Amino acid sequence: MKAGYNYHGNEPMYSGITGEELSADIYIGVVYYQRLRHMVNDKYQVRTTGPVVPTTGQPIKGRKKGGGIRVGEMERDALLAHGTAFLLQDRLLNCSDYTKSWICRSCGSFLSVQPTVSPFVGKKKQIST
Length: 129
What we know:
Keywords: DNA-directed RNA polymerase, Nucleotidyltransferase, Transcription, Transferase. The chain is mainly alpha-helical.
């Protein structure tokens, strides 16, 4: 009889409403718990904007560097299933590697300059003229 409990774990229980003893055998035991090593304050990571890789425009990796959090296929599918299309657009495009590009209307190639400043055309059209 450690800690005053029955060896088999069966203790008389009383109804919280009427105060009568319950007729069923109810097992009671000591619950053991311990503090987890990983605490939330040590693990959480948030990011709206921050440093990016210059070549790709995507967020850098790593919590210590203020990097981005990876949203994989499973996370993307879960967000889509919950109807959060605007959140997906914001996270996967606007906050990640959103860039504006100028494209030639006739050949579809990328332009290296803005057409409002100088009216250059795509590479395929320059070759043919």
